[in-house]
Sequence to fold (525 residues):
Amino acid sequence: MQGEKKSENTKEGHLSAGKHLTCWFEPGVFTNLYPELNSDEATDVVIVGGGIAGLTTAYCLSKSGKKVIVVEDGFIGSGETGRTTAQFVTALDDRYYNMEEIFGKDQTKLIAESHAAAIDLVERIVKEENIDCGFRILEGYLFLHNSDDPGNLVKEYDALKRCGFEVDMLGETPGLTNSIRSIRYPRQAQLQPLKYLTGLCKAIEKNGGKVYINTHASEFTSSGITSDKGHTIKAEHIVVATNAPVNDKYAMMLKQWAHRSYVITALIKKGTLPYALWWDTGDQTKKETTPYHYVRLSEYNDEYDLLVSGGEDHIVGIPEDVPEENRYALLEKWTREHFPVTEIISRWSGEVLVPMDSIAFLGRNPFDSSNVYIITGDSGIGMTYCTIGAMLITDLINGRENKWEDIYKPSRFKFNSSGPFFRMLKGDTVAVLKKWFYMNDEELSNVKEGQGRIVKLDGKKCGAYRDENGKLFLVSAECTHLKCMVSWNNDEKSWDCPCHGSRFTYTGKVINGPANEDLPAFTEN
Fold:
């Protein structure tokens, strides 16, 4: 694949949470210009996570006069924010007419309002802080997947109108090579995420806050955190903004499901397409995941724009009938069917947490002290939800009433079959469980160069990976979160947990929570 950037350092080297570098790692974008925590400190609020959730929260709190400290165990944006397509939207992954069934019409209007407010906030931050990040307000278009009922688009249009959105029903979709009916959404947004995070860091420091990288928070209490090197940060409030909360083993990960989503970038002649966002309504034949596609443009050079196209989701560790590394071919096929692209430039994948009832968990951590907060359950639109979470938690910490608090509270639990979590439970659960407790294993001698396999050594299940030079890496095959069996991801060269989405490098270093400890590593006898 021409031009594709490979990460010489995965999260183990703190640059990115995957083998493939995203298009956002441009020359001149530096996410490692901050110190490591090397002493004990005290602050008003300590925030764990240096992505969009943590840094927006830190920014909002520092603007309100709070002393803040951010700690990130890699570099800034080295988690899922650096692997997003960076869309800020009022178009949800699940449909608004479904939301009305789950939450009622009044609360669905508040959900819609919160997304519009998030876009307004980002626009205001970019202007006030003069952040050069390619921010654009633009239109978005939701069009039917060929497996979807055309009546569903009408139902969504009617629900959007009830929510107060000034949407339009179009007979075609601007920019698509094939004519498909669509809904036009005004006032969506996009930006370059790593440049935006860099601007947030500068503003946080200007407001008196501190940012630390290469600092792993290994212990959490109601009075602060302790790093894996023994340094403490005492704080009145603790915000965990790590995609999957690493301070909570059970409460949240039983209410959301981790999916893997794929992205390619392709050259397209400048001026061929308007700058806009595009989404289809998802493959209705995939009962467990209903993967949808999402597309935007980005600046590339004087001759070409870069089309950023994502989709082909599946449950983490369970790629079903198509292996992870083959998902890109499906995505390229779909993209070429809809857009006149030329050369494919890069590819990567990221992790999405899908909550049981489709909207994020934002606020006080369940079964914890009232001064501990989480932002999780991004449901595929994490840039927007993380911004909502920052606004909500800033109000909670400052003792201000927020009308979104009850909607997004992490303690909620709705037994409602409309949510994707429960659609998954109605699907092929047996196949899922087989993957969780996968008992077959192979002989170590069968593990070829470039392969990862589950093997049994001295009666213990191990994950074995042999690199291209023949060097063998052995780790425990039990996830350090809740002891589920990990699965090999041949695309990202990582060990992924099908139960709750934890991911580890081939040497066992934790990449994604909820696991907060590495896989034990072994040596061959």
